[in-house]
Amino acid sequence: MPATTAFRRSLAVIAALPLLTLAACGYGSDAKDDDSAKVAAGAQKIDGLDSVKIGYFGNLTHGTALVANQKGFFQKELGATKASYATFNAGPSEIEALNSKSIDIGWIGPSPAINGYTKSDGKNLKIIGGSASGGVKLVVNPDKIKSLKDVKGKKIATPQLGNTQDVALLNWIAEQGWKVDAQSGKGDVTVVRTDNKITPDAYKAGSIDGAWVPEPTASKLVAEGGKVLLDESTLWPDKQFVITNIIVRQDFLKEHPKAVEAVLKASVEANKWINANPDEAKAAANKQLGIDSGKELPADVLDPAWTSIQFTNDPLAATLDTEAAHAVKAGLLEQPNLKDIYDLTVLNKVLKAAGESTVSAAGLGTE
Length: 367
What we know:
It is globular, with a radius of gyration of 20 Å. The protein has a six-stranded mixed β-sheet, sandwiched between helices. A five-stranded mixed β-sheet has the order 7-6-8-5-9, with helices on both faces. The two termini are 24 Å apart. By secondary structure, the chain is of the alpha/beta class. The chain is built from 16 helices and 13 strands.
């Protein structure tokens, strides 16, 4: 079966899955504007807009947005149009904010983007760019799990049912020849769906034996004595897979293409700066985390977490295809229609102007 067909079939589970815990998550807290994001004298509004509302998570895998906020890349490109921000704890709440027009553009993981697209029959959002790859690890208690085969019979946490890491763990379990009921998490391995915020406490309490989680949660577990048993990047060709995309409301893309172009230009500039200045970028991302959440990450968490993430403009669409196929195999997705989930035309325009290579939608949209 072609990968794209499998991918499309895969994603109705996300369509079938509810937008998880919307009421519990709510909309994220407004991020505070930083002094570095000053409007240049004589700057003009873009598309006549007073502001562009940008959403992202307080995660290092959203480092492009953290840095672009902290270093003023967004505001520089938006001119006299104010860059305003909202931070989120989970994808479903960000999708709800996008649907209600509380934000215009957002940084988000692949599973909630797919979910939001399919649940609206392809009418509410588009993936318009990539942001990050990697940054996901299986961290375990080394006293209980010394090798990959020892995972059988243990309790392993993932962030939530049907999310990107949950699907990855279920697929890995199946590849070992073990059986797990995807919905209940019961089987040869017990999959425990646990919010990333409380996973380190669950690990310390001994209620889980390990976790398949993104950064910085993985490095927080290591700081508590955990051991990295598997880096998910080693399971992918070229060690790359999508962990963060950029999405936009379709009506906003249609009505305000210059504003979308400005945000994407800022994203491309931010990624270039991050990759050229990794230590400064790490510090900038952590400073913004502190502004948004009230607490910066300690060095023993920040340093290993940052080095495991690759920042890229490429949405790595082919790996989204594969992730969806994994979800289908796990029984978490039915067939959706994702043929137009990507619109990379504006991003490729920006990349060409910057003298950088254009990116592909892997047959799932326009380029």
